[in-house]
Structures are given as structure tokens and as C-alpha cells.
Task: inverse folding
């Protein structure tokens, strides 16, 4: 079973004015501070290669919640991310998310399609928001490969894992 999502690219933590002392670390910094986290993602990549960082795509709340019917490839508990958390104020955020679900799929923008790993928090950061963020991981820099600017459209095809093949990772 496949599931289609349509969203918009958002630089979010990649913005030049981003202040890490006021916000949780961006994905690139987390991967650098916690190599076990990066390795877990890399092991599930189609090409077994991971470009540092992630690509943020904002989707509707309905599309975000539609992923609930799609068995994830694996689940990551927030424990690994605690190792990278240098600010104790960020831990409640990680606890609220209750970990992350990962799915394989493809992303398309500007007529280019690339294999990706898709991540979403188990529990949305702000459950009542009508827009939610999913993150894309790839073997290449997606912003450069897709030539993305903020709010550029991105189409994601989620390849739902067969129920019996779903693995759970809680490390």
C-alpha cells in the first residue's frame, strides 16, 4: 500500500537566523552529536548512505494523521536524541513526541524524484495545529537536488511497510 502526501518545503531550523540556544538542535547537529542516531537512519536507507540533516515538509494535519494507517518501517524512541540534547528544557518536547515513526518512500519536486526515508513524530508537536512537519532523509542534499526555496511544493509517496515486516527499534 502506498500513501500520497503533498506539502511545502520549509527551511525551519536551517534558517541562518536560527538560534540553537533558544530551540532544539537541528537534525544535522543531532546527527553529529549522536552518531548512533545517524547510524540507525543510515541502516534503513535504500542506498545505505545518509546525507547529514533532513528536509522539512509541511503537510496538512489530515495528511499527517493519515500516516496512522501505514505501518512504519521502524520506530525510534526519543532516548537516542537525549544524548544530543544539551538543553534540559528540550527533553519535555522529546517526551511529548513519544519517539518517531520512519517510512520508506519517494519525494518529487521540480520534476525530480528521489528515494527518501520519511520521519514523523508519533505524537504531533502541537496536536491542534492544522499544519504538521514530516522530515525527509536521503543520500543527497534534497534542498540542492530539488532546487527548493521556502514554500516550494513537494510530493511524497509513502511506501507503507507490510504489517508482518514492520520492525520496532527502541534503542
Result:
Amino acid at each position: 500500500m502506498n500513501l500520497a502526501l503533498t506539502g511545502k518545503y520549509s527551511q525551519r531550523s536551517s534558517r541562518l537566523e536560527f538560534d540553537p540556544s533558544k530551540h532544539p538542535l537541528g537534525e544535522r547537529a543531532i546527527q553529529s552529536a549522536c552518531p548512533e542516531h545517524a547510524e540507525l537512519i543510515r541502516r534503513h536507507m535504500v542506498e545505505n548512505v545518509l546525507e547529514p540533516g533532513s528536509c522539512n515538509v509541511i503537510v496538512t494535519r489530515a495528511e499527517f494523521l493519515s500516516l496512522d494507517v501505514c505501518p512504519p518501517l521502524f520506530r525510534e524512541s526519543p532516548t537516542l536524541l537525549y544524548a544530543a540534547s544539551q538543553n534540559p528544557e528540550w527533553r519535555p518536547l522529546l517526551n511529548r513526541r513519544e519517539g518517531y515513526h520512519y517510512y520508506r518512500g519517494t519525494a518529487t519536486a521540480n520534476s525530480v524524484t528521489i528515494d527518501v526515508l520519511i520521519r514523523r513524530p508519533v505524537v504531533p508537536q502541537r496536536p491542534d495545529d492544522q499544519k504538521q512537519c514530516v522530515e525527509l532523509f536521503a543520500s543527497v542534499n534534497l534542498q540542492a537536488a530539488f532546487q527548493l526555496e521556502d514554500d516550494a511544493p513537494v510530493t511524497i509517496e509513502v511506501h507503507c511497510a507490510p504489517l508482518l515486516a514492520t520492525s520496532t527499534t527502541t534503542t
